[in-house]
Amino acid sequence: MSSEVVSWRTEAPGVMVVLLERPPANALGPPILDGLHAAVDAAEQAGDVKVVIVASALDGFFAAGADIKHLSSVDAASFLAYGDQMRAVNDRIAAAPWISIAAVDGLALGGGLELAMACTLRVGGRGAKYGLPEVRLGLIPGAGGTQRLPLLVGRGRALDIILTARQVGAEEALRIGLVDRQTDGDVVKEALALAAELVTSSLPAQLAAVRSVDAAFDLPLADGLAFEARQEQALFSDGEAAEGIRAFLDKRPPDFR
């Protein structure tokens, strides 16, 4: 299925691939943002999606950030609405009831990098470059960049990247934790291989793990440990822990949803 500039398909059981395809650089104007919202709607309505891969159909670009031509023609109210739409897409992906993987090759700049950082995990290609150049336009990375980047790479590295507006190469991105896996080959194939690992486990348990890890950045240790305990307990009452334990004792694969 597709919108005008975003398409999505079921690639394997439980795995959806979302492709950005707005030439020449996947600028994140209203058309592509509307398409991303539609793709998230489709993933949520499908009911059986466990992993969503966000990738690009264009050579040389994951997404080149905000649509500068669009920004040049808007007033303050329209600029606010545009920013809200970008933030809403990223927030929906970050809070989605499935695991998301950004498959990045080529340039991921500005809003493109913010989109990738909203995903649960990032797989990078050797040709990928990452950056937040907004300060050169008199702006800041306002769709989550100033918040998510420090959580991934730390305060000092985040400020270095944001204040210099420089591009981070593939090797550095892997070293500092901006991406989680790197490949010399096809980045979508690598993301699909990762998705194949992920779909074999319990999605409620995976989401509880993500929430618990995220809580480590937000809560004091004692509160974080209490949050973790509540998440684990909920998996026995509402999750798939009973099935996982039975399958282990029966020496059979678990029948997770």
Automatic annotation (TrEMBL):
The keyword Lyase applies. It holds the Pfam family ECH_1. InterPro entries: ClpP/crotonase-like_dom_sf, Enoyl-CoA_hydra/iso, Enoyl-CoA_hydra_C. The keyword DNA repair does not apply. It catalyses: a (3S)-3-hydroxyacyl-CoA = a (2E)-enoyl-CoA + H2O; a 4-saturated-(3S)-3-hydroxyacyl-CoA = a (3E)-enoyl-CoA + H2O. Keywords: Lyase. Belongs to the enoyl-CoA hydratase/isomerase family. This is Enoyl-CoA hydratase-related protein. It comes from Kribbella alba.
